[in-house]
Design a protein that fits this description.
carbohydrate binding, 6-hairpin_glycosidase_sf, single chain, globular, two-stranded antiparallel sheet, peptide-N4-(N-acetyl-beta-glucosaminyl)asparagine amidase activity, 10-stranded antiparallel β-barrel, GH92_a_mannosidase_put, alpha+beta, 16 helices, Glycosyl hydrolase family fold, Beta-galactosidase, Chain A, domain 5, Alpha-1,2-mannosidase, 2 domains, disordered N terminus
Length: about 600
Amino acid sequence: MYKIRFLVIVLLLSLTVLLFGGNKPTGKDLTQFVNPFIGTVGNANTFPGPTLPFAMVQLSPYIKSNKIYGFSHTHNSGSAGGGSGVKGDVLFMPIIGDFKTNTKNDFASSFSHTNETAAPGYYKVLLDDSKIKVELTTTTRAGLHRYTFPDNEQAALVLDLGSGEVSVKDEKISGYTSNNIFFIAEFSQPIKNYSITNENKIQKNSTTVKGNDVKGFFSFDVKADKPLLLKVAISPVSVEGAKKNLAAELPGWDFNLTREKAKEAWNKELGKIEIEGGTKDERIIFYTSLYHSMIHPNIYMDVDKQYRSTNGKVYTAEDFDNYTTFSLWDTFRAVHPLFTIIDRTRTNEYIATFLERYDHTGRMLIMEFAGIEGEVAPMIGYHSLSVVADAYVKDIKGYDVEKAYKAMVELANDTNRKGKPLYLDYGFIPADLKGQSVSRTLEYSYDDWCVTRLAKDFDQADDLYFSQRGEFYKNVFDTNVNFMRGRMSNFQWVPNFDPMETINHYTEANAYQYTTFVPQDIDGLMELMGGDKKLESWLDACFNTVLDPSKINVRDVSGLIGQYAHGNEPSHHIAYLYNYAGTPWKTQEMVRKIMSTLYQNTPDGID
């Protein structure tokens, strides 16, 4: 999950950095070094279609079994389930001929990757079955489609909403999906005929249809020399909000101008880091990784600053910009620290968003994805605390700092978190009472330490208390084997220990991949192991002990160098620990190996 963003930090070590910060354009076209196809094959879960930096719209093909089923307006990038499209979206598909209503296969089309083109803010593909050329570009809250149909064919578009509602009025389509995506769609040419279906049944004489499987069919008279354009704006609030977004961001039909503005927006953001040196492929890998790091989080409010919070209610952002898509278990480790260096303004906005959730739900957010109400916490820890602490110690304080501290303490003490009462009672989470016990203990301990970064300035008693909890990691370290391992409620170690096994005591990892997750106290970990030489030997074993494939039962345990699994976040810091062991040249060697073997300028180039 989100491993693509980590490479930006790694590559900064090998390329000369000329410029940080600011929003002034460099005058250079850095988009030429972005390949949106990197990561679209394999486990990286990226998408090739256009989006703007941190935008609400990510317009890209929905692909399954090597067929395109349409072009939808929201996608996740880098996380499990991302890349192909989000369920309950606004999806359009151009077709030739009559509408068939039984399954999506009736309008899916094969395609060839050789007929695809992608660049920041632009995507093009030729649909093999219909010979329709599709081009896409975007603004922050809207997508612009350009379809070139073959001559003398019946041109049509299919709208697939899934669960939701669609209305047709005055040549415009509007509605919403079950994920609170409200939309307005307009065409550059008049609709010739249309029909709306629900659960594959045509709703005769209906201009508005609501249901669990809503589709629309719209036919047009078009010529090959006059493409059909479609523009779609979305809103998390209402159709009226979508209309305002469309009027503000995409009032006309100039596809090329919209594409050029998207390119300018990307050059402005990519220009925050200018590099020299390296090969062309290395530059492409670097800037593509930087590009990927700027897709999420996403602005999540209309142009009038109205937004829908996770409690389902609508508010107006008075003094901040509201964002969403915080996959914090993935991003607290590298991408948010990167933002504190190159995007301090948005870092303030992210934390203000965290505090908005605290105001309206009673708890600072843990993880959040667009359109999903209520808490989303599929992963462990409460890593919004890490984001706030990192910003605070770097003097990024454009938010209510006292409220942030209060929210951090309350979240850290929230006993509704999985295994938290056990953690507080035992000083660790017993493996016989709760799954993922070792990983939970380690991540809770780190997050507790994050509270101390602010507590030092606010409450000495809290500082002492959370500092003690920041050392709870020691309670799951077995000095007999030099690993973090499962411990039971009788304080005995779980028997038959195998550090290679990706078993229930760890989260998407094994003991090798989690033992060194003590970023708050590497010196303390080194002391437990027996000193810097012991840490060095442990790291050598980690990188040189081959992982038995039969021990792997987690998809993201990939990109292996010995036990090191670059395919998932828990391993990402390990190569740097040689610096603490007094052998920095080994860090240099491993970082170089990771860069040169696990990242390539190819669609499957993120391992």
